[in-house]
Amino acid sequence: MKLLQKINKYSGLTNSVLFASSAAVMLYIARNLVTGTPQFSFMAWNLVLSLLALGASILFVIYYSANKKYLATLLFVVWLLLLPNTFYMLTDFVHVKESGDINLLFDIVMIGLFAMNGFVHGIMSLFIVHRSLLKRHGRRYVHGLIIVIILASSFAIDMGRYLRWNSWDVIVNPRSLIFDISDTLLNPTNYNRSFLITGVFFVTIGSLYMVFWQLSKLKWSKDGSI
User: Fold this and answer.
1) Is this model's pTM higher than 0.90 or not?
2) Number of folded domains in the chain?
3) I need a labelling partner for 97 at 20 to 30 A (CA). Which of 8, 10, 49, 187 fits?
4) Coil, helix or strand for 83?
5) Please, which residues have CB within 8 angstroms of residue 36's CB and are 6 or more apart in sequence?
């Protein structure tokens, strides 16, 4: 019951997130009805993964604040593994091309809405975890940790797009995953693309998160002015 009460505190956030996500799904369904083809079905799956990342961050905060250390730690790890999926959705623009089935602009807007939802889920979950950790740990430590998480997520995006690794491969295929990661880090000259993509996403995610972070610090007066 207490858990449900705490989750209910996020009802406004939950409803708005589900509304935006549903808008993307509706465009996908409309496309399928018009074209008769299930193209871009992977976008719906990626959206589910990004929602799970956001949900994991909220549950982490709930259990972390309740001093449920083991559950909180487990949820934090789950969130870390799912987080790259939120930002990864931006790379799905590589699938946009003139198909003749429907106007190209429709596909751009549809995938853009999916990608924006993913980014919003990722930024929100980062913020939720960030603020929660700041209540118990030093600012430098927490800020540094968030930077490392963004960097790791950026690297994971490249691993997912080009080497086709998934979050669950950490469990089902850890040896091969570790090999690819270590080979990339130990032989950087052979993986210029990986470091380029990692850097691009690190700048993109980090800069947008900074805007979101500063926006959250604004104080509004009763007359609606800043």
Assistant:
1) no
2) 1
3) 49
4) helix
5) none
